[in-house]
Amino acid sequence: MEFARLQDASARRRRRRRIWGRVAVTLFAAAMACPAALAVDKSASLRSWREAPGFVSANEAIAAWLAQQHRGQALAARWNRAVAATPRPSRLAEPLRTLAAQADERFVSLLNAPVDTPPVWLTSLGDAEPSVRLAVADALAAADRYDACLAWTEGLEQDQVFSPALLSYLRAVAWRMTVDDDRAAEAIERLPADDEALGPARKWVLDALQNELESKPQPMPIVARKMRDVQRRLALAEPGAETQERQQAILDELDKLIEKLEEQRKQQQQMAAAAPGGGAEPGDPADESRPSELKGPGEVDRKRLVAGDAWGSLPPAERERLTQAITRDFPPHYRGLIEDYFRTLAAEADAAEPDDPPAADR
């Protein structure tokens, strides 16, 4: 009996070894096949965007234009190597800018000192013009020149450029940064379905933009974004009519928000006064938080600016009082931003003033 039991145990061990051996072979084969499958998928993905009709036509147009320039064959060969080496078409913007500067000296000055709109001579590039404009727009967006980026991409179609995803991405970011959320949402909707077309960093930016666009808009954050947009324009030395119109729009919105806050505060004060023991005693800290219009004489009237007075025409001391009056009526989170915004406007106005007034004004 004991001998039979030992034989059965030995047979069971042999069966288990055979089963585990088959499992190990299966797992090993799967592990070996997985990298190969991934490599095949990656290779297929790389081929897919290079073989897309839109990219094929844009690529041929770029190569043909480069080939027509001085040392054209070498330039076209470099472009072909860049296409072969890059994992996604959106990365071709930089090599295209480099090759364009080598092909045409006018691009050197254009890239060193970009203009806000495409020059007329770009039409000589033929079918390569849309892709070159997209490459320049990519550099403009990187320099925070979003209005110029939109101007350079205006009228471009996705089937004309080397990267439709980059075109929609730049438009989405530029519209968002210039506080045109409806157009930003439209640009995101036009993005190709391929998640690999832009890469992880730009995909993360798009996801963040989409989350912001889907959230319920609040008045103060929108005004804050408009302030940042004006500050960006002034930092780029763009104090033109459009920037001034945006400044006035911000002031109008701030005035409306202030009036709303004051109305709410008046209602709260009336309710507090009607309650037993309500009302604030003289010298009460609550007096410091009252709207500036409810304070005594001598306080600056904020509506002067909103009614049409130019910020730059106000004396520095009055600007400071105006800034204090405005920032008192907003939550602490936004006071620093508002103060920075008005400091930017004040610095811009001070820089524009002559050192000495004209003789006629003395």
From TrEMBL:
Keywords, ordered alphabetically:
Signal
Name the chain's protein. Answer: Secreted protein
Sorted alphabetically, which PROSITE patterns does this protein's record hold?
Answer: PROKAR_LIPOPROTEIN
Locate the compositionally biased regions of type Basic and acidic residues.
287-306
Q: Where is this region: Disordered?
A: 263-330
Task: Using the record, list the residue span of the signal peptide; answer none if the entry has no such feature.
Answer: 1-39
Q: What is the species of this protein?
A: Botrimarina colliarenosi
Q: Name the domain of life this protein comes from.
A: Bacteria
